[in-house]
Each structure stands twice: as structure tokens, then as C-alpha cells.
Amino acid sequence: MGAAPQRRSMPTDTEDGIERRIGDRLRERDETVAVAESLTGGLVGSLLTDVPGSSDYFDRSIVTYSNDAKLDALRVSRESLDDHGAVSAPVAREMARGVRDDAETTWGVATTGIAGPSGGTEEKPVGLVFVGVAYAAPWGSGNSFARAERRVFDGDRSTVKSESARWALRTLDDVMD
What is the 3-state secondary structure (H, E, C) of 1-14? Predict the structure, then answer.
């Protein structure tokens, strides 16, 4: 058995306006973003579109809750789903790449996890979340990437979902630096 997963509760961003900051940065850089959501069920897209004028940079949010939806809408590989499960770093990366490439945006963001109250295991506990971020650099630059980060959140289903959506925005904000 590996080490116990780190559990963390995240503060809210209502005072710091992360949605507005991300929007301003995307607009200034003439970049766009699309989101693929599983456990957050559209919350990330909702947060991004709370900002007036978000249509300048926000393309879409696709909720792909089932494995079939991930295969069909995002081209997540069956092998990744079989080998690692839907709640995994490889699937989060593929989801982010899939939505980025399908929407032809600069950035793709993805969320996948176990919101609870059931469905967790010792290896993958309730509250486990992966956020994927994919960047499409200019052709030929070799700077495109996709990465995923892992966290475990405490709380009820609603708390895990809302903290995961906020964390997805923080992750995008950090990677954009």
C-alpha cells in the first residue's frame, strides 16, 4: 500500500475573482478555453460564464459523465479507461486534450473524480479528483502539453464538486503563468 492520499480543503475565490482574472488573461492573449467535466457536471463552465463578456474566450463545456461519453465526445481511449479507470491522471489528460482539440481552443481543462458519498475504495477514496489541463502551442513550436494533477477533498458531495471546480480554475490560472 502507498502513502495515504493528502486531503485538503480549498478556500473560496469569491474575493479574488479568479474567473475574471482568467478571462482577462485569455482576452489579452487572444486565447480560448473549453472544458470537459465529469464529477463537476458543468460547474467549471458555469463559473467561467459568470463573467460578462466570457463569450470572447469561452467556447464550451461538455459534461461527459459516463465512460461511453468520454469515448464518444472526447476520444478518451478505451485502453486508458480499462487500465487506469475514469478517475485517473491519464484519463484527465486525454479529456483535456480531447476537448481542446475538438473545440480548436488554446486551452482544455478537464475534471474527473469521485464526489461520493459512495463509490470510493482504499486506492481511490471519495473526494479523489484529477484536473487535466492541455495547451495548444503554435504549430511547430513543440510547446504543446497536457498534464494532470491529483487532490483529495473532504466534505459532502456538493463540497467536493464545488471545491473541484474552483481548483480546476486555480490549476488553469497557475499553468497559464
Answer: CCCCCCECCCCCCC
Indicate if the alpha-carbon torsion angle 110, 116, 122, 127 is positive or negative.
positive
**Within-domain flag for 8:** no
Q: What domain range includes position 159?
A: 18-176
Phi, psi of 107 (to 5 degrees): -125, 145
* pLDDT 10s digits, 157-169: 999 999 999 999 9
Give the pLDDT of residue 14.
46
* pLDDT per position as a tens digit, 21-69: 999 999 999 999 999 999 999 999 999 999 999 999 999 999 999 999 9
Residues paired with 152 in a beta bridge: 7, 128
Q: Which residues contact 170 (CB under 8 A, 6 or more apart)?
A: 10, 13, 18
Q: Is residue 1 part of a domain?
A: no
Q: How far is CA 11 from CA 8, 106, 128, in A?
A: 10, 28, 17
